[in-house]
Amino acid sequence: MIFPQIDPVIFSIGPLAVRWYGMMYLLGFVGGYFMMCHVSRLREMAIKKEVISDLLFYAVLGVVIGGRLGYTLFYNSGYYLSHPLEILYVWEGGMSFHGGLLGVLTVLLIFCRRCSLALLLVADLAVSAVPIGLWFGRIGNFINAELWGRVTEHPWGVIFPGGGSLPRHPSQLYEAVLEGLVLFILIYLLHRFRVRRGIPAFCFVLFYGIFRFLIEFVRQPDAHLGFLWGGATMGQLLSLPMILFGLGGLLCVLRVNKS
Fold this sequence. Notes:
Shape: globular
Number of helices: 9
Radius of gyration: 19 Å
Strand order of the largest sheet: 1-2
Mean pLDDT: 88
Strand content: under 5%
Low-confidence stretches: none
Structural class: mainly alpha
Number of strands: 2
Largest sheet: 2 strands, antiparallel
C-alpha cells in the first residue's frame, strides 16, 4: 500500500501554519484534561478542576521540555552539541517519550510538593490521561510519515516517502493501538475497579515498557544510531528500566496491601 499523501499543514493564515503534528498534541492535552476530571470524580479524589488545570500545565511543560531534551540526549546528542540553538526548534519534530516521562515525573514532584498532594495519587490521575496523548501523538507520527517500521512482506505494509520502494510496517499505528487504546482501556478499568493507590501508575510504566520493547522489533531504528548492544535499539534499552521500575513498584504496592 502506498502511503496516502497528507499535507502536514492543515491550514495557514499568512506566515502562521497549523500543522497536524501540533494539532495532535493539542487534542491529546485537551482529551487528557477531561479524562483526569472524569477519573477524579470516579475515584472521588479531593482534587478540584482548578488543580487539574494546573497539573496539566505542569505536565505540558514536562512533556515538551523533557521530551525535547531526552531526544537530544538519547538520540542525537552529537548533532545538537554542534547546533545547540536547534534544541529549541520543537516544531521540526524530534521528541522522546522516555525523556518526556522523566520530565513529567520531575514536574509532578514539584507540583505535589507545592500543593501538598500525595505523589502516587497524582501519578494515578496523570497516567489516566497519557494514553490519549500517545494515541494522538502516534497518529501524528503516521501523518508525518516518520518513525516507520522495518521492511515487511505483510499485505498491510506501507510504502512511506523517504522509506525506499519496499513496504514497511506501519509501526506508528501499532504503537497507537498498544500504547494508546490498549493502555487506555487497562488504566481506565483499574480506576473503574478502584484498585489500590499506585497500581495504575506502576501498571502504566510496566506495560508501556513492554509494549514499546516489543514494537521496537518491527520499528526501524534511527539511521544515525542503528542497532546497539546485542542488536537492541535505543528504544528497547530505554524501555528496560521502565519495565523493571514498573514491576518493582507494582510488587511493592501489592506487598504493602497484603501486609
